[in-house]
Amino acid sequence: MNAPFQARAGLRDPFTAFVCDDATADMLRPVAVEHGWSPEKVNKGGLRNAVQSLSVSASPNILFVDLSESADPLSDINGLAEVCEPGTIVIAAGQVNDVRLYRDLVASGIHDYLLKPFTVDQLRDSFAHAQMILSGPRGEAQVDKPHVMSAVIGVRGGVGASTIATSLAWLLGERSHRSTALLDLDVHFGTGALALDLEPGRGLTDAIENPSRIDGLFIERAMVRANERLSVLSAEAPIHQPLITDGSAFFHLQEEMRNAFESTVMDLPRHMLIQHPHLVHDAHVAVVVAELTLAGTRDAIRILAWLKSNAPQTKVIVVANGVPNGGALEISRKDFEQSIERNIDIVFPFDGKLAAQSAKLGKPLAEIAAGKMNAPFNSLVNMVLSHASEEGAGADADKSGGSKSLVSNLKSMLAKPKAKAA
User: Fold this and answer.
1) Is the preceding omega at residue 4 within 30 degrees of 0, hence cis?
2) Which of 17, 36, 53, 248 has an alpha carbon 20 to 30 Å from 210's alpha carbon atom?
3) For the whole prediction, is pTM greater than 0.85?
């Protein structure tokens, strides 16, 4: 129902409303005339009439629906979504003053919820925002902003890959003004929604269980909106409930996100590379997040070698995360770079205070970072966009990985840190 999906906007009525009372209708009609819409498009009947009418007619660009007579607004809105085409911006009004209901309605795909009685100015503001989204970055602008898909891979658990993925997605939306999808593929323990103070919903688990359902409308309903430009698909599947998939759901999700958004960031657990190697085939950039430890070095070598063999077309960015100030490193940066046979592209210093503040506020680290801590995030988003726009994406892959024995390489590095491994 909601932006950023904008299908066949020119073939639809610009506006339709379904209201429950005369007072709301009398307020809507003059505002509709102000926007050049027909006042006859303000209908009586509320949500039930909306579902009946839209089941046999095309959806408008902007739909106003009154929930005042609905006993179960959330369930009824989901029923409306079944008959609403992708691209319709839904503005709902109702009498229930409940923050949880508001969040649930927004998560279900509505654009705004106006608490009755509302003012004419509130109505105008909501319509103005809806029109701004309709004329936003999708559609013709897509030619100027080709889709960018990036995969963020942690070489080990706990290196902070999810933190960086969330920040990268936020940066692509807020700083680069791209409609962005964050796809968190850690189905049981994902933190993409949690880091943004959102409820993950069942969208991702439903997609895995029913791949045939995945289309533009499903994406529109399943994605949880973090802000105007960032939407999240995450999950917290029950631990006792393994999800068995052949990977087709992930392929369809990537395809639909490529059609609906200007950027996709995949938070990709390393074990997914083994089970579903096709996930990185369409990624323009792979951000490999490592730590400067012996185990981190070993696994960085292995993952970089895997990317070189399985995704040579994908640009690789190596990130060292959580690097403490003042030394005390298990592996020095020089030794790490010598072992992986390429340079570290970006270093994120450790800042426990900033990480704690990010978690408490429910905001991505990049949003609250300032000064020196902000610089690595800016470098990351600039590199991702730069690499994605370049041709010959396999160039950097030649520098990643290595064909030497991993154990020999590491032992040599530790025994003679200033000499190259034989």
Assistant:
1) yes
2) 53
3) no
Residue 422 lies in a domain: no
- Going across the sheet that includes 263-267, the strands are 224-225, 230-233, 180-184, 263-267, 148-154, 285-290, 315-323, 346-349
Q: Residues 367, 170: contact at Cβ < 8 Å?
A: yes
Rounded to 5 degrees, φ, ψ at 287 are -95, 110
Q: Are residues 258 and 389 in the same domain?
A: yes
Rounded Cα distance, 162 and 152, in Å: 8
Mean pLDDT, range 213-224, rounded to an integer: 82
Cβ 232 vs Cβ 192: under 8 Å: yes
- Domain holding 382: CATH number? 3.40.50.300
**Of 136, 170, 189, which residue sits at a domain end?**
136
**147 shares a domain with 132:** no
358 contacts 368 by C-beta, under 8 angstroms = yes
| Domain count for the chain | 2
Residue 49: which region, alpha, beta or left (left: phi > 0; alpha: psi -120 to 50)? alpha
For 127-158, letters b (16+ CB in 10 Å) and e give: bebbbebbebbbeeeeeebebbbbbbbbbbee
Range of the domain at 216: 143-415
CA distances to 29, 282, 316, 320, 377 from 397, in Å: 60, 14, 6, 18, 22
Same structural domain, 83 and 204: no
Asked whether 343 and 369 are in contact (CB, 8 A), the reply is no
166 burial type by CB count under 10 A (0-12 exposed, 13-18 middle, 19+ buried): buried
* Residue at 134: amino acid letter: L
Whether residue 3 lies inside any domain: the answer is no
